[in-house]
């Protein structure tokens, strides 16, 4: 009988397993990096990566070198010449200008020594008055103001406080940025009290300037700064000096009248000797006493010139009466010209100042009086 070859069931299973294993064999994966004998584009990619890396390293090294150089360079210092809320805008401006020009070595003094600080009182509604003064006797730009400071020893500044009115403050800041001729003080101009403003002026001026005298002036006078400097530079026997046009007069106790004094009963029928308000000067030692006194230890009267006069009366000061500080017309010896009471009524101050400025004896005459004149007899 013929023999037949029969395969078992297991044989069929084995064959099928081999087939499945072949089918399940994982697909071929290309190597991440081709050998150096591979195609040319891979070389270019590697070269590009190396170039980018080198550029990044170069940039990093440059940044580190720049930072190191910046750290070695001395910092650019801009000084704001301020004491509390008080600020001398001229020196702040000069400090910024020198820093911007890379001239930090030209230091602006923190508290410069001057003959006198002349504070010209002004307000937020007095821009026209300031313009009139700048067109006559007050220097019109910061360079001229700085030169006057060095030529005469007088530091002239417009004196003003602050207000809650943001519009007025913005307008003032623009004027400051243009002229740089203000001494800002810590005084509320909205609730103006001239006696308090005057004390704040003396405090600010004393802390910002090492002066021999501190002068208060109004913005409606015509002043000869050179003659004022000559007056203040004279030798004096008294360290405590109070210089001005001295006066007395009846105390006004009627509240409906101008110059009413609510504390008149403390004074009596007549005022003590004191200087007219438009301009007067206090020596450094006199101002130092006021600066160091506690505010609540000083009595304030309604009128500023009376208040200052009362403080000077309490001190052992020398009352120096000089009528050249209050002349109604220009003369060869006039220092300050103001026509009180004519200008108590509304008047065109700009025209008045320009009229005085065009008079030779006001603006162009010699600083010193003619020979033979004796100032002590005035």
TrEMBL record:
Transmembrane feature ranges: 45-71
E.C. code: 2.4.1.-
InterPro entries: Glyco_trans_31 (IPR002659)
Cofactor names: Mn(2+)
PANTHER family for the chain: BETA-1,3-GALACTOSYLTRANSFERASE 12-RELATED, BETA-1,3-N-ACETYLGLUCOSAMINYLTRANSFERASE
Record family assignment: Belongs to the glycosyltransferase 31 family.
Record protein name field: Hexosyltransferase
Organism per entry: Zingiber officinale
């Amino acid at each position: 009988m013929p023999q037949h070859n029969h395969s078992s069931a297991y044989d069929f299973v084995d064959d099928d397993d081999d087939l499945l294993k072949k089918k399940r064999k994982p697909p071929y994966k290309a190597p991440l990096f081709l050998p150096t004998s591979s195609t040319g584009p891979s070389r270019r990619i590697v070269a590009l990566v190396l170039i980018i890396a080198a550029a990044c390293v170069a940039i990093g090294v440059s940044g580190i070198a720049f930072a190191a150089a910046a750290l070695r360079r001395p910092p650019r210092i801009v000084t704001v010449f301020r004491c509390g809320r008080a600020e001398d805008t001229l020196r702040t401006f000069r400090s910024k200008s020198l820093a911007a020009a890379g001239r930090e070595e030209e230091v602006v003094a923190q508290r410069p020594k001057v003959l006198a600080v002349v504070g010209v009182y002004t307000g937020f509604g007095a821009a026209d008055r300031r313009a009139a003064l700048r067109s006559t006797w007050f220097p019109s730009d910061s360079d001229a103001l700085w030169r006057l400071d060095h030529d005469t020893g007088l530091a002239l500044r417009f004196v003003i406080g602050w207000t809650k009115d943001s519009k007025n403050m913005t307008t003032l800041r623009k004027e400051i940025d243009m002229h740089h001729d203000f001494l800002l003080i810590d005084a509320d101009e909205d609730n103006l009290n001239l006696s308090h403003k005057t004390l704040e002026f003396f405090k600010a001026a004393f802390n910002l300037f090492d002066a021999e005298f501190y002068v208060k002036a109004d913005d409606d006078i015509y002043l000869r700064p050179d003659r004022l400097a000559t007056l203040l530079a004279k030798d004096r026997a008294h360290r405590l000096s109070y210089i001005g046009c001295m006066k007395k007069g009846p105390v006004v106790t009627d509240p409906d009248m101008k110059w009413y004094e609510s504390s008149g009963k403390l004074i009596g029928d007549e005022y003590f000797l004191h200087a007219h308000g438009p301009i007067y000067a206090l020596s450094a030692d006199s101002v130092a006493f006021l600066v160091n006194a506690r505010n609540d230890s000083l009595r304030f009267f309604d009128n500023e010139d009376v208040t200052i006069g009362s403080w000077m009366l309490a001190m052992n000061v020398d009352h120096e009466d000089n009528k050249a500080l209050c002349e109604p017309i220009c003369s060869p010896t006039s220092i300050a010209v103001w026509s009180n009471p004519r200008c108590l009524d509304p008047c065109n101050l700009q025209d008045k100042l320009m009229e005085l400025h065009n008079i030779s004896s006001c603006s162009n005459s010699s600083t010193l009086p003619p020979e033979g004149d004796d100032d002590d007899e005035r």
